[in-house]
Structures are given as structure tokens and as C-alpha cells.
């Protein structure tokens, strides 16, 4: 038996329960891993609340790292003793878990388990955003909402390393300083400054080729006003709540804009796509171009407390859960 967090009903953080579970042996194509660190992400909140419904009972958690201790028939991607990490599928809030071996990538020796758990989902999300949805080029100016969050800090650094100028929204002066130290050239404190006006000022009225928005309801419509004609709105989260429906005509009125609501699992749908994204992510971390900021650590048993901190926007950088 080993410990895991289970959901028997959806709701607030209090529905996250620590239980003893029987993991069992891996089946064909599966690996069993003993986890050393687990990542915390907003998708975990959506699963807990039922916004993204899952069959119950259910173990959340879409990101983690550990060591393979058993493999099933037909597994060729990893072997017992390998240090590995993953981003999806769910089931990560556990000391030991089963996972399709094709979802695992081997960790370079230079990347520790906590760093891996902090970057797999968030870092490959950034890869998707800046290398595939809109391939950033030197000289471009971009807007990143929640610039001091886990995805935000990685995105700011990676974008800056590519030669982009980064405008980022944050909620406090402390978060502005953190974002600035991680590649955000122009932090904008919401409540003290209007980010649309700041985009106009910084770009001299030219506006932006792309906006990256994980906040959702509070920022979505005004973010469209930051885009140049034929600009791209990448809406990849809804921390402030679901976005109200819009008419496609609005995109035409604001400049023949593009809108995407991407999911990482569609962009890493094949083994070669997963391996490429992980390799590029590991390279920028090993090179020092992206420094991982782990702002909080919680025992896995205390994940309810971690959820409360995340939802109240008290976290900075990445959060890891320690089994």
C-alpha cells in the first residue's frame, strides 16, 4: 500500500483526501514510478472543482518526477532504475503511480526531481506557446499575463532569451520585482496601471503580435485590444473564471485576429513531439537561460493548503508537492 490524494466528490480544497491505495503491478505498456516530487498546476483546481469533469473517485496531478521501479510487457521507452518525469495524464498526487511508459521522458543527470516536477507541464506549455502556436522572433514585443506565476516566469525568461521584449501583468510590487528579475522588461501592476494603455505606450501604438493569457475572464476582452491586426490571442487558462462567450465577428472588428485555446496534450500527442519539447526545455534549463523559481514546497498530504494558496494568488513561481 502507498499514499495518494483521492477525490470522491468535487468541491473546495477540503475534498482532497489522503488515502492508502493498492497500486499493483504495471500492465502492458505501463511503468510504475516511485515519485520524488509532484507539480501543482491550475488544471488540478479545475479537476477538483469539476470544471473539467473526471470519473470519481479520482487522483489529480498532471506533473511529476521519480524513479521507475517496475515496467510492464512491451515497454521500450524506459527501464527499471531510470530517473523520469512526465506531464500528464492525471494521477500524480501519489507516492507511487502507474503511467503509460510512452508518457515518460528520461531526466538528464543535471536536472533534479524538484526542478523536473516544476517544469514539465509548465515548461512544455511555454514551449507550445512560443515555439509552436506563435514562434517568437527577436525584436517582437509580447504580453504575458500572470508574469510572476510558474508558467509566467518560465515564459518571460525563455522569450527574453530569444530576443523578445516582454510586457507582463502582476498583482503586487513584489511580484513585479520577481518578474523583472526573470526577464520581464515591463512589469505592469494591475490596479495601479492600465495594461492596454501601457502596451500602447511601450509599442508606440503599434500593439502586439501575440498575447499569452492564463487569467481568463478578467483580462480576455481587453487583451484583444492589445493586438495588432492579424495578431494571435493564446488563451490557455482561466484563473479568474471562465471567459464569457464571444461572437467571431468581434475578432474581425478588432483586426482580423486569431484566437486559440490550446491544450498541451494535443501538441504533444505523439512520442516525437513529446521528446522534442522535453529536449528543448531541458536544454534551456541546463544552459541557464531559464532558471526555475520554486516559490513554495508542501508535503503532498498538505495539498489542500497548497490549493488554497494557489487560488488566492499567494504563490509565486512554481509549487512542488513532496510525497
UniProtKB/TrEMBL annotation:
SUPFAM superfamilies: GroES-like, NAD(P)-binding Rossmann-fold domains. Residues 11-321 form the Enoyl reductase (ER) domain. Keywords: NADP, Oxidoreductase. GO terms for cellular component: cytosol. InterPro entries: ADH-like_C, ADH-like_N, ER, GroES-like_sf, NAD(P)-bd_dom_sf, QOR-like. One of its GO terms (molecular function) is NADPH binding. It comes from the Bacteria. PANTHER family: QUINONE OXIDOREDUCTASE PIG3-RELATED, QUINONE OXIDOREDUCTASE-RELATED. This is Quinone oxidoreductase. It comes from Sphingomonas piscis.
Amino acid at each position: 500500500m502507498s499514499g495518494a490524494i483521492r477525490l470522491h466528490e468535487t468541491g473546495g480544497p477540503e475534498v482532497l483526501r489522503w488515502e492508502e491505495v493498492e497500486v499493483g503491478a504495471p500492465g502492458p505498456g505501463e511503468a510504475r514510478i516511485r515519485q520524488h516530487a509532484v507539480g501543482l498546476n491550475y488544471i488540478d483546481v479545475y479537476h477538483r472543482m469539476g470544471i473539467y469533469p473526471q470519473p470519481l473517485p479520482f487522483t489529480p496531478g498532471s506533473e511529476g518526477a521519480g524513479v521507475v521501479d517496475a515496467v510492464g510487457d512491451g515497454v521500450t521507452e524506459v527501464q527499471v532504475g531510470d530517473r523520469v518525469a512526465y506531464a500528464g495524464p492525471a494521477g500524480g498526487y501519489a507516492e507511487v503511480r502507474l503511467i503509460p511508459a510512452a508518457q515518460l521522458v528520461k531526466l538528464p543527470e543535471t536536472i533534479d526531481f524538484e526542478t523536473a516536477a516544476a517544469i514539465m507541464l509548465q515548461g512544455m506549455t511555454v514551449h507550445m506557446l512560443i515555439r509552436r502556436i506563435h514562434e517568437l522572433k527577436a525584436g517582437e514585443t509580447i504580453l504575458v499575463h500572470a508574469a510572476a506565476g510558474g508558467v509566467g516566469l518560465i515564459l518571460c525568461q525563455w522569450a527574453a532569451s530569444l530576443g523578445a521584449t516582454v510586457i507582463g501583468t502582476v498583482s503586487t510590487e513584489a511580484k513585479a520585482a520577481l518578474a523583472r528579475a526573470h526577464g520581464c522588461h515591463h512589469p505592469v501592476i494591475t490596479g495601479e496601471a492600465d495594461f492596454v494603455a501601457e502596451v500602447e505606450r511601450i509599442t508606440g501604438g503599434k500593439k502586439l503580435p501575440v498575447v499569452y493569457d492564463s487569467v481568463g475572464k478578467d483580462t480576455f476582452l481587453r487583451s484583444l485590444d492589445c493586438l495588432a491586426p492579424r495578431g494571435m490571442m493564446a488563451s490557455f487558462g482561466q484563473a479568474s473564471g471562465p471567459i464569457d462567450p464571444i461572437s467571431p465577428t468581434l475578432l474581425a472588428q478588432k483586426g482580423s485576429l486569431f484566437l486559440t485555446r490550446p491544450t498541451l496534450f494535443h501538441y504533444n500527442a505523439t512520442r516525437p513531439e513529446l521528446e522534442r519539447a522535453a529536449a528543448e526545455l531541458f536544454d534551456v534549463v541546463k544552459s541557464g537561460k531559464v532558471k526555475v523559481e520554486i516559490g513554495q514546497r508542501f508535503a503532498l498530504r498538505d495539498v489542500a493548503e497548497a490549493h488554497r494558496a494557489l487560488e488566492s494568488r499567494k504563490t509565486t513561481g512554481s509549487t512542488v508537492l513532496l510525497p
